[in-house]
Amino acid sequence: MRRAVTLLSLLPLLPFGAAAQVMADAQPIDPGPAPSATERLARRLPSELLGYRRISETEALRRGSTVRYAATDGERIMVSVMVYASEGSGTPEEELQRASAETEALAGTGRYRAVTAQALPPAATPALAEATPALRCTSFTLQPQQGRASADGICVALQSGHVVKVRVNSLSQPDAGRAGRMAAEMAEAVGQVFASAR
Question: pTM of the full predicted structure?
Answer without folding.
Answer: 0.76
